[in-house]
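Archive entry: two folds, one per protein. Generate the first.
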Amino acid sequence: QVQLVESGGGLVQAGGSLRLTCAASGNIFSGNVMAWYRQAPGKQRELVASIADGGTTRYADSAKGRFTISRDNAKNTVYLQMNSLKPEDTAVYYCNVLFLVLSTVKNYWGQGTQVTVSS
């Protein structure tokens, strides 16, 4: 079983910064991808950024140039540095890890952390 625990959310003014942390525990296989998603009220959950264990990253257009995803493989931890925050970044942010086990996709989610950006 895999558990993901997020931290670092909170209330910040527009233009400010936050750093989210997600610590993963359990049996996580190599070749995994860790990611941050977010879900604003009344909207679908969307990918913010992802990072493979080899270091390849991917960003949503809304995150490019403002957010940076990174990871510490030794600690099974993923980070999301968010700068120049905007009110439209307000959402619950979820950590996700995805990997294959004998051709079966394993997909795990954290409980979410609230990010609120005031104007």
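Generate the second and append.
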Amino acid sequence: QVQLVESGGGLVQAGGSLRLSCGASGSTFSMRRMGWYRQAPGKQRELVASITSGGSTNYADSVMGRFTISRDNTKNTVYLQMNSLKPEDTAVYYCNAIIGGYGIWSWGQGTQVTVSS
């Protein structure tokens, strides 16, 4: 069973930056498309960024140009660099491996990002 551990969240003012990290146990990480999701209070979880095993990336329109996803397969870790943060980015952020847009591993605890105006 793969375990996901997210970290790096916090409280930041609008316009600030944060870098999230997600470590995954297990040997299949490097072969997986990985993604960062977020869930705001009262809203559904949404995929905001993804990266293939080869490093190709995709972003939701809401974060395009502000967020950058990357990965280090030697460390089984995926990152999310978040710049120019907005209050509407406030959410719990999760990572997961993706098939068909859905996370396929058990969800971790997530990391809270709060952006104050």
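Annotation attached to the second fold: The longest strand covers residues 91-99. The chain has a mean pLDDT of 96.
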